[in-house]
Design goal:
It is a single chain. It is built from three helices and 27 strands. By secondary structure, the chain is mainly beta. The protein folds into three domains: about 110 residues, OB fold (Dihydrolipoamide Acetyltransferase, E2P); about 100 residues, OB fold (Dihydrolipoamide Acetyltransferase, E2P); about 150 residues, Sandwich (Jelly Rolls). The strands form four sheets. Strands 1, 2, 3, 4, 5, 6, 7, 8 and 9 form a nine-stranded mixed beta sheet that branches. Strands 17, 19, 20, 22, 25 and 27 form a six-stranded antiparallel beta sheet that branches. Strands 11-12-13-15-14 form a five-stranded mixed beta barrel. A hairpin with a 2-residue loop joins strand 14 and strand 15. The chain is elongated, with a radius of gyration of 34 Å. The N and C termini lie far apart (about 80 Å).
Length: about 425
């Protein structure tokens, strides 16, 4: 009997402990408040655009607005504020807290008691907070619950304003500012050339719309994505529409707001030469007589051979070049031929099957225009019809005497996708 009682006691303890292991589920927030003022009506109480000014909303006014949270400070780009909108307008609410995303998630409905707060603007951007020292200050963190109340669980929220053109700041309705917007078919002017932000200061980058109008993307140096490169091509950008005086701006919340960027077919270099390391990068040379080398001086950097002191049979052979996925490839280079021998014996050719020995390899001459020149001039060779393989190589073959041959700016360009 004692064994049975002991066993039952252990079982009860285990069951009780198991019940205590049930995860705590946060209650769904609920508010009994009712909005009696739209955000547009609130904004109309103050002359937005009267620089850095405000009105105090009396405690007796009992003004209540409601809206959906559209910002998140999780990634550091929206600092100590939330934005809400209700379809009639948007407002930025300054709050002295750096982890607002834990309570005010994107898509969360909130009710805001405006009584006792101040409505003003910073450089023509409407804000709600507490005015002090000639500027809008944040609501103290400990007083958030006196003014802002969550209701329900966050719901998906999509931008209600879609832009394919950006008007002048004064031509944009006040009801659009501080709202989530979508920019369609746009591109970053510095795409592929700059990061989102400098490390020590907030940074602006222009976004150009399909009609040529522009908007400035403003990014904080506290954002956790500042070192990422701006995308190339065109796509969609989502963010909060703001302004700084007469400059229209957009603030993204994280990199998920930059989406569907596709680089259209464009002409780009698919093969270039670093002359200082060329013979370590796969370029080969074979010679009888003078040898190909790299010449560097104040007026020229490139390949060079001088055969003024006798005949030479010299090859300059590229590494393998894979341009099978590029359309309309063109080989371009600048060259100069000097000396009494002229261009006799100077040949540009290619092969798809290099044996490692130029004399046992089958070469095909390449058609080159403007090949003979005593001055530095440009040559263009169309590679489109050459049936090139990933093992394709080019070669400059000099078999002559009493001439010098200079080659620079060597590259292959093509349409890439």
């Amino acid at each position: 009997m004692k064994i049975l009682k002991h066993t039952l006691w252990i079982l009860a303890v285990v069951l009780f402990a198991s019940c205590n292991l049930e995860p705590d589920i946060a209650p769904v927030p609920h508010s009994d408040l009712k909005a009696n003022t739209t955000i547009a009506e609130l904004l109309a109480m103050h002359e937005i655009g009267s620089l850095d000014s405000y009105i105090h909303i009396p405690d007796s006014s009992d003004i209540i607005i409601t809206g959906i949270v559209t910002t998140s400070d999780k990634h550091g780009n929206c600092y100590k504020y939330i934005n809400i909108e209700d379809g009639t307008g948007g407002i930025q609410i300054k709050i002295n807290n750096t982890a607002l995303h834990n309570k005010f998630k994107v898509g969360q409905r909130v009710f805001v008691k405006c009584s006792g707060l101040d409505l003003g603007d910073y450089r023509k951007l409407p804000q709600l907070g507490i005015w002090a020292n000639d500027a809008m200050q944040a609501i103290p963190s400990g007083k958030i619950s006196n003014y802002i109340y969550c209701d329900g669980i966050p719901q998906p929220f999509e931008p209600q304003i879609v832009l394919t053109s950006v008007p002048h700041a004064n031509d944009i309705p006040d009801s659009w500012y501080n709202r989530l917007v979508k920019l369609e078919t746009c591109h970053f002017v510095e795409g592929g050339m700059a990061t989102y932000c400098a490390p020590n200061a907030a940074t602006s980058h222009d976004i150009e719309m399909i009609d040529g109008t522009t908007i400035t993307m403003r990014t904080s140096n506290y954002a956790d994505f500042i070192n990422e490169m701006l995308p190339t091509g065109s796509g969609t950008v989502v963010g909060i529409l703001t302004r700084y005086n007469n400059t229209v701006q957009i603030v993204i919340r994280d990199l998920d707001d930059v989406m569907d960027f596709v680089t259209p077919p464009h002409t780009a270099d698919v093969f270039t030469v670093n002359y200082s390391t060329a013979f370590n990068d796969g370029w080969q040379r074979f010679s009888s007589g003078s040898e190909w080398s790299v010449l560097t001086n104040t007026s020229f950097t490139g390949f060079y051979i001088n055969s003024n002191n006798g005949s030479s049979d010299s090859w300059l052979i590229s590494p393998t070049i894979d341009i099978t996925n590029a359309d309309s490839p063109e080989l371009r280079f600048d060259h100069r031929i000097a000396g009494t021998g002229g261009s006799d014996g100077m040949i540009l050719c290619y092969t798809n099957n290099y044996t490692g020995d130029p004399y046992t390899t089958t070469w095909t001459d390449l058609p080159v225009y403007n090949f003979t020149s005593s001055n530095l001039s440009s040559c263009i060779c169309d590679l489109q019809e050459c049936q090139l393989t990933p093992n394709f190589r080019i070669a400059y073959h000099y078999n002559g005497s009493n001439s010098s041959w200079y080659i620079t700016n060597l590259h292959i360009s093509a349409i890439v996708y």
